[in-house]
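I hope you will forgive my troubling you with a question about protein structure. The record follows directly beneath this note:
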Amino acid sequence: MTSRVPISFACGLYDRMEALYTGEIKAQGIDLNFIVHNHPRDVFNRMAGGHEFDCSELSLSEYVCRYAAGKRDFVAIPVFPSRAFRHGFIAVNSNTIKFPEDLNGKKMGVQLYTMTAAVWICSILRQSGVDLDTITWIEGSMESPGSHGKPTTLPPPEANLHHM
């Protein structure tokens, strides 16, 4: 009998992960401790801030920012546990914003300026004629006053950024 390597894995219980969680699919040679945590920001904070798991889901933009800052203590593998695409829209006041460039010089709220969805949307806005350097970015939680999690490893962005 060969010994199995114990590995802790923290992730949301997404449909793509369920068979790993239930044991329907088992990785050969691994004794998987699947830790269900349905608040991704908490998982990211715990992994990036304290290496609390052997592996976990992690924000793509957070991984890239860490890597660019020289923090190369993680290896990314191309696994996408959630098939939701949360990058498709922004909400605007249509009384004052008729065209993308009408956002120039305005305030925009994001949970984290460096979160993957915000990075994606910024690239779309830039392609649509928005001068991102004129935007005042307001970061904050959607559910309560204060910050959205406690990211500990992201380098400060070069943006007009304010925190709630």
